[in-house]
Design brief:
With 464 residues, the protein is mainly α. It has 16 helices and 4 strands. Helices cover 76% and strands 2% of the residues. The longest helix has 40 residues. It is globular.
Length: 464
């Protein structure tokens, strides 16, 4: 069995296990969670019923919630990064070196994902936190190893190279941030609390600015990287034209420069604060404009449609709403109240969380579609998979729009914890996520049939 396909099955399995575990922790599945021996209520909850407010630090559990959220996001990011590395390695690395890289990535992913779950939910021992850091370190080493071997040959590959370098820079930023937290815990926590009630106060703290710059840069670069790999799979000729004047070559230059400026400006937030956003925003807009135009030039139909819908969704659900929030931040223009008004407190919480979830969802959805199409075309092998891809795209688009309706279209009001019966969530977001879940399950069943059973037979044969 091909080594690439083994890793594709393994990362899919890790994703199903980890995300399935986190879904089990949701309030609606509390009876099932208790039945299998997990805690009924998670320690260090974000919502304190005595205060009728969300809190970052709980008197009884300290900053447990804060640490749990940070580690969970890192573990999901690492799983997606492993899945992305498999595609990159299959396209660009020689077999022996590729196998070493992928085996290391598998080890790093298992270490990160397992240590996060153990530390957060079973044994809050600092050993597991150290294990988590060791898993992240493996990925940093992988990045350095790839830089020694990967030699770009065209503009697309230079863009991919840049994404890898910028991810490495971002990981150094994250490492510095984590070590700073160990030494300047009180200042860091104070900034996080201030950000909850008055983000302007938090922006005065260098660690808070470093945190926001790290988040902005890493997710934006990761999305750019998976888009570029999708272009490599879908096929784009450098002399291909759009509007009879603009070629793919021009757009590759534009994406390279805009990605570089966007990332450097994001990192600069650490040192010079909010003024760097004056550079981030236009650079990011140029970047997603170049990716949208490149999407029209993709040769493979299913990849072209997926990238077009994804880019349009990013414009509608991320770029435009982000501009609306920025314009209305301190003075009402398009919204009934300024976004920082206390009656929009719940909206700012929802937007800060939902905005990042939409970007992470975009990465995951594109990975799902690429795993259906590459390295084995399951759309040709199983005709119904074409409809599965379209259901994925429909569910994704509805979820992106519906989440924005929840974040921005509710009337101003008092903070409501866990609003699971909210109209936008119940009739739009949740059904669309169910569609995506079913499509993911169908894809995993095919992976299990095609790769999982073969891998199991290979393992059994070793012990015979």
């Amino acid at each position: 069995m091909d080594r690439i396909k083994k890793h594709m099955f393994l990362v899919a399995t890790i994703f199903v296990i980890v995300v399935g575990f986190y879904i089990l922790l949701s309030p609606s599945l509390k009876p099932i969670r208790v039945a299998v021996g997990l805690l009924a209520e998670l320690p260090g909850s974000r919502y304190n019923p005595d205060l009728n407010a969300a809190e970052i630090i709980n008197e009884e559990y300290g900053n447990f919630y804060l640490g749990r959220i940070a580690l969970v996001y890192h573990s999901v990011f690492v799983i997606f990064l492993y899945a992305t590395l498999i595609i990159f390695s299959g396209l660009y690395l020689e077999k022996v070196f590729r196998d070493i890289i992928l085996d290391l990535a598998l080890i790093g992913t298992v270490i990160v994902a397992s240590s996060v779950i153990i530390y957060n939910y079973f044994d809050r021992n600092f050993f597991w936190h150290g294990t988590f850091i060791a898993g992240l370190t493996i990925f940093f080493i992988i990045g350095l190893l790839i830089l020694t071997k990967y030699k770009p040959k065209n503009l697309l590959e230079w863009n991919i190279w840049l994404s890898g370098v910028l991810l490495l820079v971002g990981s150094v930023w994250g490492a510095w941030l984590g070590s700073s937290y160990m030494h300047y815990r009180e200042e860091f926590l104070e900034a996080l609390v201030n950000s909850r009630f008055n983000p302007d106060l938090a922006e005065e703290n260098i660690f808070w600015r470093a945190l926001t710059s790290h988040e902005h840069a890493m997710i934006a670069i990761a999305l750019t990287l998976i888009f570029l790999l999708a272009l490599a799979i879908g096929g784009v000729k450098e002399d291909e034209k759009i509007f009879k004047v603009i070629t793919a070559r021009h757009l590759y230059y534009l994406s390279f420069v805009s990605q570089l400026i966007m990332a450097l400006a994001s990192y600069s937030v650490t040192f010079i604060g909010g003024i760097a956003h004056l550079v981030i925003t236009p650079a990011a807009l140029l970047l997603i404009a170049s990716t949208l135009l490149l999407s029209f030039m993709v040769d493979k139909e299913i990849i072209r449609h997926s990238l077009l819908i994804g880019n349009i969704a990013i414009w509608i659900a991320v770029a435009i709403p982000g501009a609306i929030v920025a314009i209305n931040l301190r003075k009402a223009r398009f919204l009934p109240l300024a976004f920082r008004d206390p009656l929009y407190d719940w909206a700012e919480l929802a937007y800060n969380i939902g905005h990042w979830h939409l970007l992470l969802l975009s990465w995951g959805v594109l990975l799902l579609i690429l795993y259906i199409y590459w390295s084995e075309n399951f759309i040709e092998k199983y005709k119904f998979m074409k409809w599965v891809v379209w259901l994925v795209l429909i569910g994704y688009f509805i979820a992106m729009v519906g989440t924005n309706l929840y974040m921005l279209a509710n009337p101003p009001g008092e903070y409501i914890p866990n609003p699971y019966n909210n109209l936008w969530l119940s009739i739009i977001v949740e059904p669309s996520l169910i569609i995506l879940t079913l499509c993911t399950a169908i894809t995993y069943i095919i992976y299990l049939k095609e790769y999982g059973l073969k891998l199991l037979r290979d393992i059994i044969s070793v012990f015979k």
